[in-house]
Write a structure and sequence with these properties.
The chain has 391 residues and is an alpha/beta fold. The chain contains twelve helices and 16 strands. The chain has a single domain (5-390), classed as Thiolase/Chalcone synthase (Peroxisomal Thiolase, Chain A, domain 1, 3-Layer(aba) Sandwich). It has helices at residues 20-26, 31-38, 52-63, 89-97, 114-128, 201-222, 244-257, 267-270, 288-299, 331-336, 340-345, 352-360; strands at residues 5-12, 16-19, 42-45, 72-78, 104-108, 135-144, 157-166, 172-182, 188-189, 198-199, 234-239, 308-315, 319-327, 348-350, 376-382, 385-390. The protein has a nine-stranded mixed sheet with strand order 5-4-6-7-1-8-13-12-11, with helices on both faces. A three-stranded mixed sheet has the order 3-2-14. The protein has a two-stranded antiparallel ribbon with strand order 9-10. Helix 4 (89-97) links the parallel strand 4 and strand 5 (104-108). The radius of gyration is 20 Å and the shape is globular. 51% of the residues are buried. Bound molecules: 3-hydroxy-3-methylglutaryl-coenzyme A.
C-alpha cells in the first residue's frame, strides 16, 4: 500500500481578532462563560478585503513553499462559505496561485466535513495510482458567522488550512482505515439566502457526541474488533473544534466508550496541545480539525516522531469520520518553522464596535476599491465579477 499523507501544511488567519473577555463584557455575560464554559480566548474576524478565497490562497501559498505548481494534479477546496453558487473557490485559487491547466480543480461541501471529504478523495486518488506522481492540494477555508447577539456569536471565527497531500508524507502518513458515521439531521444549516448560519445549539452538541462514538466504533470494527482502551495508543487526538470545550466533551465521550471511568484524565496529554491555536482563532468550520493538527505539531513539547495520532472530523447535517496517522520524523520542526503562534501574535486587536461594523458591511456587493498592498486581497465586485489583487 502506497504511503500517502500530508507532506506540508499552511495556515492563514484574518488580520484582526476580537478578545473574548471584551465581547463577554459588551454582551453583559460573565467572561468565565466564554473562557471556561466554551474555552475560547480570541476570535478571528475577517475584514471586507478578506474572504474564503484570499484566506485559501494565503494558506496554500504557505503549504506550497518550495513546490513547483506544475506538480499539483488535483486542487480541492472544502468550504461551506463559498463566494459563488456556481464558480468554485478552487478556480479563483487556481488563478491566484498559477496552478497548471492540467490540474483537476473543484470544491467540496458538507458543512465542516467538506475539507475531510477533499482529503479522502485526494488520498484515494494517490493510492489508486491516478495521480501518476503528482501531488494534491486540499484547502479548507471558511468564515464562520452566526450573527451579532446570537448564542452562537462567541463560536464564530475565520481562517484556512491548506494541506499538500502526496506519497511523500513529511508530516503525517495517513492510514486507509477510516470509520464513518453519517445521518440526516437538522442540527446546523444555512439556507442559500442567508449569510449567517442557523443552529439548534444543544442538539448540535448531541449529534456531534453521538457521531464521535459511532465513527470511533466503525473505525474499531474495520480494524478488526472493539477493544477496551484502544485509544491509549494515540499520542494525540485531534477533534473538530467548533469551540475548545467541545473537544473536551468529545474526548470524554470517546474515552467513556473505551471503558475509561475517568475520561478527562487523558485530556491533558492527548488533546490539550491541539487546542492552543484553535482557542485563539475560533471555529474555522472545514479547517478546524486541521488547525488542531497544526497546533499539535507546532505546540506539543514532546517528541512525537513515529507516534500515532487520531483525527475526528464532524460536519453538521451530518457526516463524521475517525481516522489515524503516524507522525514523520522531523514533522514538528517543519511545522514549528512556520511560526504559527507568531502569525496569530501579529494580528491587530479590534474593539467590539469595529467588529460589529465589519459584520454589517455588505461585502459581496461592494464596488471595487483599492486596498493597501497585501499578498492576496478581495477588492470588490465589478459587473457581477469578483476582483482580486495579488502582490
Ligand atoms: P449557550 O446557550 O450560550 O451556552 O450555547 P450554555 O448555556 O450551554 O453554556 C455553555 C457552557 O458555559 C456550559 O458548559 C455552561 O455550564 C458554561 P457545559 O455545561 O456545556 O460544560 N457556563 C459557564 N462557565 C463558567 N462560568 C460561567 C458560566 N455560565 C455558563 N459563568 C452553544 C452554547 C455552544 C450551544 C452555542 O454557542 C452555539 O449554538 N454554538 C454554535 C453551535 C456549535 O458550535 N455546535 C457544536 C457542535 S456542531 C459542530 O461542531 C458543527 C459546526 O462546526 C458546523 C459545521 O459542521 O459546519 C457548528
Amino acid at each position: 500500500m502506497l504511503n500517502a499523507g500530508i507532506e506540508a501544511l499552511g495556515v492563514a488567519v484574518p488580520d484582526t481578532y476580537l478578545d473574548m473577555t471584551e465581547l463577554a463584557r459588551a454582551r453583559d455575560v460573565d467572561p468565565a462563560k466564554f473562557s471556561d464554559g466554551l474555552g475560547v480566548q480570541q476570535m478571528a474576524v475577517a475584514a471586507p478585503h478578506e474572504d474564503t478565497v484570499t484566506l485559501a490562497a494565503s494558506a496554500a501559498r504557505m503549504a506550497l513553499d518550495g513546490v513547483d505548481a506544475n506538480e499539483i494534479g488535483l486542487c480541492i477546496v472544502g468550504t461551506e462559505t463559498a463566494v459563488d453558487h456556481s464558480k468554485p473557490v478552487a478556480s479563483f485559487l487556481q488563478g491566484l496561485l498559477g496552478l497548471p491547466s492540467h490540474c483537476r480543480v473543484f470544491e467540496t461541501k458538507h458543512a465542516c466535513y467538506g475539507g475531510t471529504a477533499g482529503l479522502m478523495i485526494a488520498l484515494d486518488w494517490l493510492r489508486s495510482g491516478s495521480s501518476r506522481g503528482r501531488k494534491a492540494l486540499v484547502v479548507c477555508s471558511d468564515i464562520a458567522r452566526y450573527g451579532v447577539r446570537t448564542a452562537g456569536e462567541p463560536t464564530q471565527g475565520a481562517g484556512a488550512v491548506a494541506l499538500l497531500v502526496s506519497d511523500d508524507p513529511k508530516l503525517v502518513a495517513l492510514s486507509p482505515n477510516v470509520g464513518t458515521c453519517s445521518r440526516d439531521v437538522m442540527d446546523f444549516w444555512r439556507p442559500l439566502y442567508r449569510k449567517d448560519a442557523i443552529v439548534d445549539g444543544q442538539y448540535s452538541l448531541t449529534c456531534y457526541l453521538e457521531a464521535v462514538q459511532q465513527a470511533y466504533l466503525a473505525w474499531q470494527v474495520q480494524g478488526g474488533g472493539v477493544k477496551p482502551y484502544a485509544s491509549d495508543r494515540f499520542s494525540a487526538i485531534c477533534y473538530h473544534v467548533p469551540f475548545p470545550k467541545m473537544a473536551f466533551k468529545a474526548h470524554g465521550a470517546l474515552r467513556t466508550f473505551d471503558g475509561d471511568a475517568t475520561p478527562s484524565k487523558s485530556f491533558e496529554w492527548q488533546v490539550k496541545s491541539g487546542l492552543e491555536l484553535p482557542r485563539r482563532v475560533g471555529n474555522v468550520y472545514t479547517g478546524s480539525l486541521y488547525l488542531s493538527l497544526a497546533s499539535v505539531l507546532a505546540c506539543d513539547a514532546r517528541d512525537l516522531s513515529g507516534s500515532e495520532l487520531a483525527l475526528f472530523s464532524y460536519g453538521s447535517g451530518s457526516c463524521a469520520e475517525f481516522f489515524t496517522g503516524r507522525v514523520t520524523s522531523g514533522a514538528q520542526a517543519r511545522v514549528r518553522a512556520l511560526a504559527l503562534p507568531k502569525l496569530l501574535d501579529a494580528r491587530r486587536r479590534i474593539s467590539v464596535a469595529e467588529y460589529e461594523r465589519t459584520l454589517a458591511v455588505a461585502v459581496d456587493e461592494r464596488p471595487v476599491a483599492q486596498e493597501p498592498s497585501r499578498a492576496f486581497g478581495f477588492l470588490g465586485v465589478e459587473q457581477d465579477r469578483r476582483v482580486y489583487a495579488r502582490s
